Amino acid sequence: NINNNNNNNNSNHHHHINHRSSSQSKHSSSRSNDGDVGLTALWGLLNLSRWRTFQPSICRFGLYSLIRVVHGAKDPARRTIARAVLSNIHFHPANVTVLYKAELRLKYTALARLAEQRAAAAAA
């Protein structure tokens, strides 16, 4: 039984993207006749991310994968969908600590990379 009230569905803030985008149709048959499984999985994750019940699990187990898609995927549809999932899950109170730790970790990594680049440039 699917309960569609505010306890389970973050209806005030959820993102929904038109499933039939032109980017999807371009890329859907690039790997096989069955379509692009990765893109289909992202669509499914976006649908699940609209439900508050699933948001903590998505954050706990998929946060860094979603961040990698946002920053590294060549397909704009993948980046857009992953960004929408992240936007949906960030409203859940159970995700605050996980998201804060991820932010600190990503900032530290970026600063360390910048320091390495500066050191390499100074040595050259």
Automatic annotation (TrEMBL):
Segments of this protein annotated with the region Disordered: 1-33
Taxonomic superkingdom: Eukaryota
Low complexity compositional bias, start-end: 1-11, 20-32
Protein name as annotated: Uncharacterized protein
Organism in which the protein naturally occurs: Polytomella parva
